[in-house]
Amino acid sequence: MRRISRVLPFALPLALPFVGAPASRAEAQSSQPPQTATMPAAKPEDVQSIDAILAALYDVISGPAGQARNWDRFRSLFIPGARLIPTSTAPGGEVRHRVLSPDEYATQNGAALERNGFFEREISRTTESFGHITQAFSSYESKRTAQDAKPFSRGINSIQLLNDGKRWYVVTIFWDSERPDNPIPAKYLPK
Fold first, then answer.
1. What is the pTM (predicted TM-score) of this model?
2. Fold assignment, 43-186
3. What is the signed CA dihedral for 158, 85, 173, 88, rounded to 10 degrees?
4. Residues 6 or more apart from 190 whose CB is under 8 A from it?
5. DSSP string, 147-190
6. Which of 19, 107, 126, 167 has the fewest CB atoms within 10 Å, i.e. is most exposed?
7. Tell me, what DSSP letter sits at residue 144?
8. Other beta carbons less than 10 A from residue 52's beta carbon
């Protein structure tokens, strides 16, 4: 889920970007999900398979301008203690990262996603699994509307998943955006 660019004033990759503080206190309060000690119950169909949880992850952050996101559904996909880690490169070349909880991600990016519209979808995936764990390299593209001909951003979400025998959980999402000096390798693009 990448870092949302300042052009979109959000990235998750899902693309889940860095966003500045909300424009007003009211906006900050309306976009903040409730802070709870327990995770909301997930819809069984969202967590029954790798395909299902990744589809839910992209779906829950996507939507047109003016549409509220379902942050309880978003949080229900994660294991307690999960982390979202966007990376970026500063103008001087310094590589930066941030470590966010699902609640922090929703609080920092929710208002911008809802204000500007944001659609992110998986375009390719490579997975490796062992025992209860799976690592998915999920290539994504981001658009402002579902009808946009071209994405404004692409990148790769490195998503770690856990299956506890009952359901799938997102443990970590670690992502980087495509740039002229960092194109997505062909092996991570649709064939």
1. 0.81
2. Nuclear Transport Factor 2; Chain: A, (3.10.450)
3. -40
4. 123, 124
5. T-SS-SEEEEEEEEEEE-SS-EEEEEEEEEE-BTTBPPPGGGS-
6. 126
7. S
8. 18
Strand, helix or coil at 83?
Answer: strand
Report the C-alpha gap between 51 and 70 in whole angstroms. Answer: 19
**pLDDT by residue (tens digit) across 19-34?**
333 333 344 443 443 3
191 Cβ neighbours under 8 A, 6+ residues apart: 124
In this predicted model, what pLDDT tens digit does every residue of 135-191 receive, in sequence order? 999 999 999 999 999 999 999 999 999 999 999 999 999 999 999 999 999 999 998
Q: Which of 163, 119, 93 is nearest to 11 (CA)?
A: 119
According to DSSP H, which parts of the chain are helical? 25-31, 50-61, 71-76, 102-116
